[in-house]
Specification:
- The longest helix has 40 residues, at 16-55.
- The chain is 83% helix and 0% strand.
- By secondary structure, it is mainly alpha-helical.
- The chain has helices at 2-13, 16-55.
- The protein has 2 helices and no strands.
- The radius of gyration is 28 Å and the shape is rod-shaped.
Length: 63
Amino acid sequence: MKSLIRSMKQFLTSEDGPTAVEYAVLVALIILVAIAGITILGQNVNQLFNDAAGSLPAAGGGG
C-alpha cells in the first residue's frame, strides 16, 4: 500500500506529463496556423490562376 501511495505522489509531482501536454498543444497550434495559411494561400493562388485564364484569348478557330 505504501508503494502505491509513493507511486501516486511521484506521478503527481512528475513534470514529464505536463511537459508532454504542453508540447502537444504547441504542435496542435502550429498545425492549425499552417492549415489556415495553406488554405488562404491556396484560395489566392486559385484566384490568380482564374484571373490569368480569363485574360487569355479563346482557343480554337484560327485557321
